[in-house]
Amino acid sequence: MAVRPAIRKLQRQLQEWRRDLHRYPELGFQEQRTAQKISQCLSEWQIPHETGIAQTGIVATIYGQGAGRVLAIRADMDALPIQEANLVDYRSLIDGLMHACGHDGHTAIALGTAYYLSQHRHSFRGAVKIIFQPAEEGPGGAKPMIEAGVLHNPDVEAIIGLHLWNNLPIGTVGVRAGALMAAVELFDCRIQGRGGHGAMPQQTVDAILVGSQVVNALHTIVSRNVDPIQSAVISIGKFQAGSANNVIADTAEISGTVRYFDPQLSTLLRERIASVIAGVCSAHGAGYSLDYRQLYPAVINHAAIADLVKTVAGSVCEPPLEIIPECRTMGGEDMSYFLQAVPGCYFFLGSANAEKSLNYPHHHPRFDFDETALGTGVELFVRCVERYCNQD
Ligand SMILES: [Zn+2]
Ligand SMILES: [Zn+2]
């Protein structure tokens, strides 16, 4: 599917790389074996590269023939703390860890792209930088890699990256200009009441009651303060308080996440959350502390590079892939930092195949994807390079 013969020949190799990485998942900033494997391949193909960037990151530079543009391709390499429930022969051999997001596939696609380009240097001008990034699942490897200078020497003019996407079937590409994925913010609130006897509430400040009202009031922010045309989410994922039937809780802990596309919502949401918590606590005579922080900004694609990906996927590839423009998600990604630094485009490569039961959601213990998407991923990257770097 949409893959030229020289890349189709790589399919088995792509699958082998992916399955090897899948057997040995590693958490963010601990991708030692993964990095070693990548470096071994790059050395074998005589591709100059730098290792140990932001701990376990790698950057490879492949020069084409003659002067031209410089395009970067970004792949993440980390796994998740999930026990794999699949019984496939390439299932995770590490207890409690699993490639449940498809980053093993991203690494395999980037390796395949590096190999193909190193063997076909005559087919493009300029240079391609391949960035193997640690810790996308948190705390984030993109920012420290940028700070370490991976976008310089040679200076990167545009960047692309993909996520294998089980929300879309194989044969499709989710791509759009503008916001693709949401900004991710986190907060932890600790409410300080005054504990006491369950039979004598008049002597207490009930942290559970105050906390319940905080949760309810926080849920009015998206419905009453955000413009209904905009998208935002506030989810409370943790509420811990209390110890016994007859004890009024002294403290309550509430943790949640905030998502939005438009950067202008950042201040509004942060300020409303702080003032709602302050107001509810003050009305009940409770104290509180609030820790509010941004994890990743929104993934915002640049129109020109999104057009490049759309053209390549929708009309250059033979046969063309189906473009799905309505593919936004409130999930987050630290590819956003690269897109803030240089123009670029992040896109979803459909990887679900319901007929083969390869359609479990990302981060599910039975997540797996259709490996034919690996070759399609290489084809898309290679065609983007050929089109972008050969421009005057
Ligand atoms: Zn993930
Ligand atoms: Zn992911």
Structure notes:
The protein has 392 residues and is of the alpha/beta class. Helices cover 33% and strands 27% of the residues. It is built from ten helices and 16 strands. It has helices at residues 5-8, 11-23, 32-44, 103-119, 142-147, 207-224, 265-284, 303-316, 335-341, 372-389; strands at residues 49-53, 57-63, 70-76, 127-133, 158-169, 172-174, 178-181, 183-192, 196-197, 232-241, 247-248, 251-260, 287-296, 299-301, 322-324, 344-352. The strands form four sheets. The chain has an eight-stranded mixed beta sheet with strand order 1-2-4-3-5-16-6-15. A four-stranded antiparallel beta sheet has the order 10-12-8-13, covered by helices on one side. Strands 7-14 form a two-stranded antiparallel sheet. Helix 2 (11-23) packs antiparallel against helix 4 (103-119) and helix 6 packs antiparallel against helix 7. The protein is elongated. 48% of the residues are buried. The protein binds zinc ion (ZN) (2 copies). Residues 101, 103, 136, 163 line the site of one zinc ion (ZN).
